[in-house]
Amino acid sequence: MTDEARLLVAARKLESRALAEIHDRFYPDLYRYLVYRTGDGHTADDLSSEVFMRLLEALQNGKGPDVLRPWLFGVAGHLVADHFRRAARRPQVELSEDLSSLDGDPAREAGLSLRTRAVRLALQQLTDEQQQVLALRFEQGRSVADTAELLNKSVTAVKQLQFRAVAALRRQLGEWQ
What we know:
Layout: H1 3-12, H2 16-38, H3 41-60, H4 68-89, H5 106-124, H6 128-139, H7 144-151, H8 155-172
């Protein structure tokens, strides 16, 4: 039995040592692969985490791979495809933050990173139209009338979309307020 096979047997028993070793062993290669495929370190980090979450879920359900590396990279490939499909359907709202302006406090930077990720995830839950309205209104600073014209919608419709989007974000991000 190979070392990887022994590791997989222990992981099927949900032994934390084995799960940690799988993560430590495969994460660097998986991350590099995902950076290459997505062109973005943050996205690669998120997708890497998702790969390992799916492994854990599969193992908890009594399923999972027969061989680790091909399974992990197969899941990663599917996640990349899903990522680009979602990105094509939804306009990205860029959150530009100057992290260099932080005072170097690791706890503050970690909190900012978690909040930024929470906001990005919450934005992805909005409809495409809601994302467009928020991007035009808050990212680009456009007026309601200008936004309505750009989206070929009435002023009332833009106001409703904005109200519903902000309300949804408040619900989803309530723990951060």
